[in-house]
Amino acid sequence: MTASRYWFDTVNLLKSYSKSGDIFVLAIAGLFTAALFFNAWLKPMGDAVIVRAHGVVKVRATLKRDGDYEVLGRLGFSRIEVRHGRARVASDPGPLQVCVKQGWVSHAGEAALCLANQVSLEIDGTTRPFDSITY
Amino acid sequence: MSEIRLAVTPEDRHIAGMAAVAIGLTLAEAAIPSPLPGVKPGLANIVILLVMMQNGFGAAAWVMLLRLLAGSLLLGTFLSPGFWLATAGALGSLCILSCSRFLPVRLFGAVSVSVLMAFAHIIGQLSLAKIWLFPEVDITLLMPVFALAALIFGTVNGLIVARLVAKDDVTGAQSANA
């Protein structure tokens, strides 16, 4: 069992040559890596996009079909794109462009908020980490 | 005809020697096939960390920058996107190396610094890739792979440095006793 031998050797080396703070740093780094794995690969994918203007649902569409939607907010039209199971705000009249820069969202419960234009894009799924997101 | 002579201190020679070892490791590492470009053991960090622990931050920064420059010249990647990615990563780990001087030595050893350096390296690299090279590509899927590589290689490199330093202390003590 070469693999297990390497494992035991590594653990022995860690015991001999690391300090208590090192184990702490390793634990934090391990948790960080695990969180990245969970975030990227294990989060449930959404199946629909909900677009709201002033808190009112304007568009509810499946992510399974590509589409373009325009929603009128306080400042003007926000353009929403759905491509290959993901959605994004392609353009928005707001000054900061935070929701546009956020890019594609695809996991259940993820959202892009265009605060100035009062338009929000939210991904809906069978399981969601939050009940709702609101201003 | 006048001769220009540069005064070379023993420390200069030491830095040059260590940089040569780091460059050698960089070249050897470039020959190892990697599943993802950018996922590398970072063996040169062993030398840099060792220099840091034995000669201080200034010498380590010199070795790191010399390795970056000479390594890229030898590999033919100087000023290419790969060079800038390596530079961004090196600057990230240099920041950590600089901050590591303020960590209490009693609690944190080479493993901590090595792991933090590896993470700073990928953060620097991926940030530049996201901002400059592939702004439209979603790198969240790649991040865990890079993080896992940083965790594993950072730990192994740190253990190697800790072991080398411990060995050096033992032999140093023996020769002092003799």
The residue-averaged pLDDT of chain A reads 87
CATH fold node name of chain B: Arp2/3 complex 21 kDa subunit ARPC3
Give the overall shape of chain A, derived from the CA principal axes.
elongated
Give the mean pLDDT of chain B: 89
| CATH-defined superfamily of the largest domain in chain A | N-utilization substance G protein NusG, insert domain
Residues in helices of chain A, as a percent range: 25-40%
List how many beta strands of chain B DSSP finds. 0
Strand order of the largest sheet of chain A: 2-1-7-6
Helix count of chain B, per DSSP?
A: 6
* Distance from first to last alpha carbon of chain B: 51 Å
Strand content of chain A: 25-35%
Radius of gyration of chain B: 18 Å
Largest interface: A-B, 22 and 30 residues
Key phrases:
heterodimer, A: 135 residues, alpha+beta, mini-chromosome maintenance (MCM) complex, domain 2, 2 domains, 3-stranded antiparallel sheet, 3 helices, elongated, B: 178 residues, mainly alpha, Arp2/3 complex 21 kDa subunit ARPC3, 6 helices
Question: Can you describe this structure?
Answer:
The complex is a heterodimer of chains A (135) and B (178). Chain A is of the alpha+beta class and 135 residues long. Chain A contains three helices and seven strands; from the N terminus they run ααβββββαββ. Chain A has two domains: 2-42; 48-124, N-utilization substance G protein NusG, insert domain (mini-chromosome maintenance (MCM) complex, domain 2, Sandwich). In chain A, the strands form two sheets. Chain A has a four-stranded antiparallel beta sheet. In chain A, strands 3-4-5 form a three-stranded antiparallel beta sheet. In chain A, strand 6 (111-114) and strand 7 (119-124) form a beta hairpin. The longest helix of chain A is centred in the N-terminal third of the chain and has 23 residues, at 20-42. Chain A is elongated, with a radius of gyration of 22 Å. Chain B has 178 residues and is mainly alpha-helical. Chain B has one domain: Arp2/3 complex 21 kDa subunit ARPC3. Helices cover 73% and strands 0% of the residues of chain B. Chain B has six helices and no strands. The relative contact order of chain B is 0.12. The chains are: A alpha+beta (135), B mainly alpha (178). The interface between A and B is medium-sized, with 22 and 30 residues.
